[in-house]
Amino acid sequence: MNVHESEKIAGLLMQLGLEESTDDTADVVVFNTCCIRDNAERKAIGQIGRFKQLKRENPDAVIAVVGCMTQQDGAGLALRKKFPFVDIVLGTANLDKIGDLVADCLATHKKHVEIDTDPKPPIVEGLPYYRTSGCNAWINIMYGCNNFCTYCVVPYVRGRERSRRKEDIIDEFRRALDQGYKEVTLLGQNVNSYGNDRGDGYGFADLLQDLAKFDGDHRIRFMTNHPKDMDDRVIDIVADSPNICNNIHLPIQSGSDKILRLMNRHYTRDDYLATIDKIRAKMPDCGITTDLMVGFPYEEESDFEDTLDIVRRVQYSNAFTFVYSPRRGTPAATMPQVPEEVSRRRIMALIAEQNAITRKLSDAYVGGVYRVLCEDIVEKNGKKQLCGRTESGRMVTFDGGEELVGTFCDIKITRSRSASLFGTKV
Ligand code: SAH
Ligand code: SF4
């Protein structure tokens, strides 16, 4: 989501006639921050601090801090105080103003702090994007979140759910294909609740169905799904549409019903496993990925065992694993915290468990031929190779010329290493 937002920021800056800079000596620097976990926030603060020197050497440079971090209670002014050399602090709700504010700052050197706290800011359409992710185009279908999982800061910093008009999404989709993008990833904090706020009965399954009708050689992916809202129709449409990838990201967070309740997730492990069974019944080859958290308040050893058990049962093709990080203003931050060394031990055990599964599932690809969308060139030890992903989301490296980037290739898998596959073009 943030990467895509940065594409929007870059597009708006380019409209001013600015060009991309490849080093730290830029005239305009925008930090697009994230505050989902403490380490993301600390990283942003460290990076911003580094630019004090740039401002000293080039006082005309404009430095802006935007994104989720600015939207936390009182953070806008606190940031300006901590980093007086920052010229612009801009919230997530009015990010479309970045171009105007930078233009004004370049001309007048006036400082700006603009944080809109409206939980339902209007959607601004027609903004330019400077797409940076090769042959994949990200398309936001909705903004914000209504779920208030007790650990999560997103609803506070991104406001309530707002779905884009289907016409605007379909139009952007058509333009992306016309421009030659081979893969489109639909984005939302909970794509399954797309349309609920519009009240016209047109939901995510309808949108997927409409997008699947486009002819051509391209792929559709989407994320993130919420297990409580994942419906059978979506599973059926993914299974029946050759251009929608058999790859579903279904974050479970924890395998313990007690912890899921405390997290306010609104599903049980049995509900979740029933959804997995439905996906596997329709798409035995579906790559299923997840997000997992350890060290949530009140997590006991038996709860953690339940998480390990889910991981073994589902056999995720990959998982994003996190240590719970208390976020100011969220309900879980005031619950009793699990000691750091306990969380550290659990995350290591969880990663080891998942890595063994990832490796085993990767090994099963060896000998098979898979259709890979060639995404990029990678250089290792002076040797150039190509890389891309299978429909299920596995990364594959293979030999070939640069002209293959942006095309689909059939690759015979010859070797696997952890989550990576290696092969040759057939
Ligand atoms: N809307 C998505 C997730 C967005 S955040 C969803 O519900 O699945 C991405 C992931 O970050 C979450 O799935 C969760 O695993 C993790 N996360 C969110 N808040 C966190 C916190 N306070 N500490 C640790 N991990 C967190
Ligand atoms: Fe955060 Fe939960 Fe919303 Fe995901 S669904 S963004 S985890 S509150």
Quick overview of this protein structure:
It contains 13 helices and 17 strands.
Structure characterization notes:
This protein has 426 residues and is of the alpha/beta class. The chain folds into 4 domains: 113 residues, 3-Layer(aba) Sandwich (Rossmann fold); 113 residues, 2-Layer Sandwich (Transcription Regulator spoIIAA); 119 residues, Transcription Regulator spoIIAA; 60 residues, Nucleic acid-binding proteins (OB fold (Dihydrolipoamide Acetyltransferase, E2P)), CATH 2.40.50.140. 34% of the residues lie in helices and 22% in strands. It has a 5-stranded mixed beta barrel with strand order 13-14-15-17-16. The protein has a 4-stranded parallel sheet with strand order 1-2-3-4, with helices on both faces. Bound molecules: S-adenosyl-L-homocysteine (SAH) and iron/sulfur cluster (SF4).
